[in-house]
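TEACHING EXERCISE
Course module: macromolecular assemblies
Task: Read the component lines below, then compare them to the predicted structure of the full complex.
Student: A.B.
Group: 4
Components provided:
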Amino acid sequence: MQKLADLLIQKFAPLQQLPAEYVYLVVQVVFALLMLMIFVAPFAGILSWVERRIAARMMDRVGPNRVGPQGFFQWIADGIKSLLKEDIIPRAADPILFRLAPYLVFAGMFAAFVTIPFSSSLIVADMNVGIFYLIAVTSIVVVGILMAGWSSNNKYSLLGGMRSAAQIVSYEIPAGLAILVVVFLSGSLSIQDIIKAQGAYPWQWFLFDNPFMPVAFTTLFISSLAEGNRTPFDIPEAESELVSGYSTEYSGMRFVFFYFEEWANIYLIAAVGTALFLGGWQLPPAVKAWAVSTGGALGVILPHFLEFVTFFLKAAVIVFVVIWIRWTLPRIRVDQLMTLSWKYLTPFGFAASLGVAVWMVLFPNGVPLVHYVMCAGALATLLYFFYRVAYQVWYSRQPIHLNPFV
Amino acid sequence: MAELRTEEMLLNMGPQHPSTHGVIRFVVKTDGEVMSAAVPDIGYLHRSIEKIAEKATYNGFMPWTDRVDYLAAMNCNVAYAMAVEKLASIEITRRGEYLRVIAMEMNRIISHLLAVGSLGMDVGAYTPFIHALREREKVNDLIEELCGQRLTYNYARIGGVIYDMTPNWDKKVLDFLDQFEPLLNEFDRLLTDNKILRKRLGGVAVVTREDAINYNFVGPNLRGSGVKWDIRKDMPYSVYPELDFEVPVGTGEAGSFGVVGDCFDRYMVRIREMSESVKILRQCFERIPPGDHLVKVPKKIRPPAGDCYIRTESTRGDLGVYLVSDGSDKPYRLKFRTGSFSAMAIIEKISRGMMVADLIAFIASLDIVAPEIDR
Amino acid sequence: MDDYFRNILDTATSVFEGMSITFSHLFRKPVTIQYPDKLERPMAEMLPDRFRGFLKVDMEICTACLACMNDCPIDCIKIVTKKDEKSASKERVLTQFDIDEAKCMYCGLCTEPCPTGAIHFTKEFERATESLDNLVFKFVPEGQVIVPYKAPKKESGAAEAEETADA
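Instructor-supplied answer key:
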């Protein structure tokens, strides 16, 4: 961002009379808003369509397919519908807090997006405490959910809000410990530095660096699912118990804000997982050299575009896994959730951080053999998984339809 | 330091709720998560079916018996028909008996599919519910071919059944059974083996053997508490003495934390009963004799004055019909005794000290269907 | 301690198996029938013969025996006959044959006693309408009378065979 802002100051003479900080500020804010409108909002909407289609195929149904080609404009129709709905505010609800809660939830989620890198220099704010800022600012969501539960003046919402506060606060610790492990390996809190410490090929990712990293990745993944209120941890919005949890009394666009935050949060989970463990936007050096060598304007844009595509594809795989888990597993109960966090994930987080610290003392430069062995293990698990999938399809003797679009 | 007085919250899991199975109200006193009492409040679905019976002729009352428990409609039809036949001393043909048993067992399969599917949905697993409904739709199509309706069959008549099988119907049902068994196994591996489900249902809402007998549990609920009692085996009726099947009983198999009589046992009894019903259906199709499916009965049946009580094993337990006749062509008094009504009594006792989420799992595992409670 | 690690192993294996099952469903054919515009066959073909749709009365063969009206458990059939003063033989004629299809519970008790099979089920069910009055089917047009059908005496054997076939 700094380079881009300097470029703009050079090109446009009137800007040189302002202090440089103001130009930087305006450029950052403009880019943040552009990212919100061009990337985050359409992504959350399209993700709702993708989720509904994937969920439908997992249930042997079709999903939305009437509004536009293959139902692609369903999310636009849903958005317009919720904008046009009557804004119902219960008379006994707290007037200020009720209106403020969706905005807090949204702000907490979006404020974390400014540190997500899209390519090696497309990042709104590359802070040197990037990942730390991200964990801290996503906790504002808790405040918003508690506000929503309390101000609705509804016992069900209150139950949902309290459960959610307990859940999100307890799962901050394993998430923080898993991120600590990555910080050990990379030596810096800045997300771009963490990605630059990895390579493009799987054996250069942090995930396969040493045997404790998969433990840390699993801990981070499960904790992020719990922070994002996704099944199996969607107790605050458990439909069969509490109608709709903390968002029961909301209607129209305010209601959509809560679910918008949930979908955009999925991308946040995926982006953090990709950046920290899966090598982020790193391209193989040969590919990068080829992209730069095309020369001219294309030579500047193409590497960044390829890096963005790499990052997005890796994040898309994690997004798919998050959706897939939602439609497979039942929900766990609130006390089981606490047990999981405090008795299973936190000890594993501590064990992982201790293990990685000891490993780094013993092998300061890493052990390439371990990288290759772990990659091979992951590949073997993946192949076994696809074998099981083929077995299920064969065993059930149902007709096959490979086309994702019906 | 003064004791901090926290008031208990009175939560109304009201008549409209996504997970009470039908229109029932629970008044729950809770302090956030742990309940101190959950009192059921029934009567929202009372339709005076028993009073209507006093105004309807014996033949004309058959469609109403469907609506007593619409998920086990065939069982209610047959129970009522058997009561009238016993009172009026009408013997029906063997083929009629076999057709009734075939329809009853198919009804048992689809009712249990819905029960375990909605148990999964209440616990948070949305996909197995849809898979169970997909199988249910296939059986609904088969029954539609047999008698014309998918939910309220009105298939049994006093004297037998109204329609015989269409040509090749038995082959279609056997084809369905062949492809149903692998899918039941897959459903098992998706939902039953899932550790999260086992932890949700294992050790939850334990109904001991003594409590189950004292509080008058019937059907899969009773068998889930370890009591081996099935009216089809212990007080057999119709052609059940000739059929060979097992009676599954709960054994506390959820894992190291499973107790005999918990929600998981009741769930497992239902899954196993579906496999047993498949066995029964195959045997019925092998043994069904040719012949008539309906005996001629007078247009207006006038049973002699007297009363009789019939017990059958419906999908939710012991469906009893008590019929009092005074010699005219309309019943004097008809009473249904249903399994879901018996299951409501214990909810208040077991719910002390349970969590709200467990109450949902408990109600779902009892397989309560609201029309059966209120009739 | 043993339980602790067994819990983790059980959770991992059961989640793995469950996820492989749902992933395998992505490759199967959806079972949805996309009604009404993307049907593979016409709706009437997809319904079985015994399907209980709306009731229809063939007025040419109705004998006005009133068996269906007497057997209906909820009294949704209304038949009015009167002696026709104008005709020579003063026979009964039908002036009204209404079936309130909104009340009807499609049980079939009216189709069973019909001696000629005049009242029967069709495969029609798509008659959603704005007003309940539109669902009262009047089989005798306004202002007309219909002479009931009389089965010829020597064909009584054939009529009985038709009756048992319907049952």
